Amino acid sequence: MNFINPTVSVIIPFYNKKDYIIDTIKSVLSQTLKEFELIIVDDGSKEDLPIGKINAFDDIRIKIFQTENRGVSHARNFGANEAKGKYLLFLDADDKISDNFLLDGILSFGMNKDISVISPKVKLFGKKRGHLHLSAYSMNILLARNIFIMSCLIKKDQFHQSGGFDSSFLKGFEDWDFWISYMTYGGIVKYNRDIEFHYRISPESRNHSLNKTDFELFRSKIMKKHYPLYSKYSFSFFESFEYKLIEQSAEYKLGSFLMKAIRRKRF
């Protein structure tokens, strides 16, 4: 096993998730691919990171860093800057992945050099069970709303090329902004339904509706930041019949539920 030059860097920002992070770590250490590193970034958590339990794994692939509390975007960027792997996987401290996630995901990259994202099947667990179904990628749809979970496999070089996460975005909108920036640099999205991301819906996620004021505020900010893209793909898309159908669709409402769950998990 190559621990000096791992294939994948798994990055877990930690903030007040001490009851779940051990299960998350176990899901990573159970991978069939062994050439990875696990970077845990303690983002100034009010809850202590369970160091004793983590050290009990006695695994040199685990690296722990502590920073002052500056939010999930800073923690992810910090982890990515420390990463030695060619590929990155961001994983929240209460979620899990299937045992074959890293190996089969990396093999998918080998199918086409232009692939820049490996998107897994999304399974909900915890308070709500089922599967999350998101739209196939197109820049038009991505400019209208986020259609990616954050726990996709991505290329580290393209991550840095895109500038990483913008910490001025909050409440889950940093993910949407990131994906627009990342996909600006192109590439194919490969959907691999043989690998699973397990997304925990926690008890505190009571309100499944996205706050309209927040959505409009941050969408406006995103549109201003990425104005050349919105100009290229035309603002008229938001007035189109297609967009109106999207807004009313069950899938759109499920995406709103996902955004709200992200907000509840982090703040």
UniProtKB/TrEMBL annotation:
Gene3D superfamilies: Spore Coat Polysaccharide Biosynthesis Protein SpsA, Chain A. It holds the Pfam family Glycos_transf_2. SUPFAM superfamilies: Nucleotide-diphospho-sugar transferases. Residues 9-134 form the Glycosyltransferase 2-like domain. CDD domains: Glyco_tranf_GTA_type (cd00761). PANTHER family: GLYCOSYLTRANSFERASE (PTHR43685), GLYCOSYLTRANSFERASE 2-LIKE DOMAIN-CONTAINING PROTEIN (PTHR43685:SF2). This is Glycosyltransferase 2-like domain-containing protein. The lineage of its organism: Bacteria, Pseudomonadati, Bacteroidota, Cytophagia, Cytophagales.
